[in-house]
Amino acid sequence: MSGVLNVIADFVHNFTDGMAIASSFVAGTSIGLTTAFAVCIHEFPHEIGDLAILVKSGASQRQVILIQLLTALGCIAGAVVGLKVGSMEGSVAAQAILPVTAGGFIYIATVGVIPQLFEDTSFKQTLSEAIAMILGVGIMAYIALELE
After folding, report:
1. 3-state DSSP call for residue 39?
2. Half-sphere exposure of residue 113: CA atoms within 13 angstroms, side-chain side
3. Over the stretch 129-140, which tens digit does the pLDDT of each residue have?
């Protein structure tokens, strides 16, 4: 059952990734490239985790590949929606895509990821994770300031 739930969640997650990337390109090429890069970087560990969940759920190698391809279609569908809605001038939906997807990413990070980082780890591990998080925020701030 966890495998099925993971596939559904991964499809939705990829859909929002596609919307974020497409609407970012509508907003500007540099914003689009930055968003696409950030999404690609976070997808590597995310997809490895999905692969582990599917294998643990009993899926064969072939099934895992097909399921991952299916969930990747969510990104394409999200990109189509993001381009369509993002190109509608004056649309409230077009103006809301980037803030809503960014808010979703921030919510996931603060509610799902950050608490896990500080569970059952040594002080050294916690410190290195906090430094990495601060470095990531610093890089995003630098990019945002350079784009202005």
Report:
1. helix
2. 13
3. 788 888 888 887
- The 10 Å Cβ neighbour count of residue 69 is 9
Ranges of the chain with pLDDT below 50: none
Instruction: Quickly list DSSP for 89-148.
Output: TT-HHHHHHHHHHHHHHHHIIIIIIHHHHTSS--HHHHHHHHHHHHHHHHHHHHHHHHH-
pTM, to two decimals = 0.72
Structure tokens that stand for 68 in this block: 């991952």
Alpha-carbon gap, residue 41 to 51, rounded angstroms: 16
What Cα–Cα distance (Å) separates residue 78 from each residue in 17, 84, 106?
Answer: 7, 10, 19
Rounded CA separation 79/70 (Å):
15
